[in-house]
Structure formats: C-alpha cells, structure tokens
What does this fold into?
Amino acid sequence: NAGVTQTPKFQVLKTGQSMTLQCAQDMNHEYMSWYRQDPGMGLRLIHYSVGAGITDQGEVPNGYNVSRSTTEDFPLRLLSAAPSQTSVYFCASSYSRESTDTQYFGPGTRLTVL
Amino acid sequence: QKEVEQDPGPLSVPEGAIVSLNCTYSNSAFQYFMWYRQYSRKGPELLMYTYSSGNKEDGRFTAQVDKSSKYISLFIRDSQPSDSATYLCAMTHLSGSARQLTFGSGTQLTVLP
It folds into this structure.
C-alpha cells in the first residue's frame, strides 16, 4: 500500500491564483481530512469528509473548498490564494469517523503565496 | 486561550536521558489522548494513544493521563538520537459528524549523541 499520497510537494503561487492540492489513499478509509500546519499553531483542521459525497467544515475553512466524489480522493481547492494561506498542508485518513484517533498522514504540501 | 497548550521547546538532551513532554487542556469533552511524532519535513505519525487516566507503557515510551488535572505527559526513557523529532499531543472529542483531533503546537526534541 502507498498509504496517503499528496501532490505537489512544493508550490509557489501569486496572490489571487487558484490551485488544487491532491490527496489520495489506498486503504479504503472512510474518513479523510485536511490540516494546515503553521509555526506555533500546531495542526488545524480545514475540512473533513466521513465518506464519498459527504464533506464538512473544520476549524479554519475560509478560502478553501473540498469535494469527495470517490472513497480514494479528497482534493483541496484554494479559490483565490492569499499570503495568509502560506503554510504546510497535510492530508490524513482514518478507517472511520469513530477511529479518528489513529490518523495516517501524507507527506505534506509546502505552499508559498507571494 | 487555546484548548490544548504545549510547551514548544526546543528541548535538547544528551543520549540516554529521560525526557518528559507535557500538555494541558481546558475542554472536559476530550475523550481520547494521543501522541504523534513528526520528523523534519514529514507528516505526523501516531506514537501512542490512551483512553483513560493512568499510565500506558510501550517499550521506552510511557503515556500518562490525569483527567482530573487536565494534564497529559509522554516520557521517553534511554533517549536515542533517532528520537529527535517534534512531538505533538492530540485529543479527540465529538464535533459535527465525527470525532475530531485537536493538536497541541508541538515540542521540538533533539537528542545529542
């Protein structure tokens, strides 16, 4: 199993540009989530999904959209990038919504917005 | 005030030392308690979890939870250079349609050979 994969690993955007961060898992996990990690702030939940076709907002959802058309994929879209979105983004998955204590994280995408 | 407070460090210790990492929390709804380890430029990985007050041991690692004081700790015995990483405490509670993780800000640990 590849586990949780994320692309790209690095990205530089200009203010106002849009882009999609890709996330895929091959473990048939029901629950998937997106976090951002900033210095001194820890990991903060952006959006999550408890199954295909079901998404919900986390702690910091503004400026981001998600969709879940398949069990495997959970892309994160930045609609109009802002410097405040400069961060490291992690995708994670767990077997179910009840087992989110054991989450498997991807390697991260390092995003810089100029 | 953050729901989970964690001393950011950095913490530097000699090889073989006993390391103590700590978090406090304010939300009584937190049910399960975890420690994740994150190596530089990698994603976090689950190290230990516990569901109740008391101690849980796994090799050189011991997780301790005191729900009455809202305090959790991770002890590392005989620390090794390979333990050098950032350690994140995390806790779950029901929010929305799932149990959600709330993370501490992480403590950066360096074990010197």
The interface with chain A takes residues 4, 6, 8, 32, 34, 41-46, 49, 88, 90, 92, 96-101, 103-106 of chain B (CB under 8 Å). The longest strand of chain B covers residues 85-95.
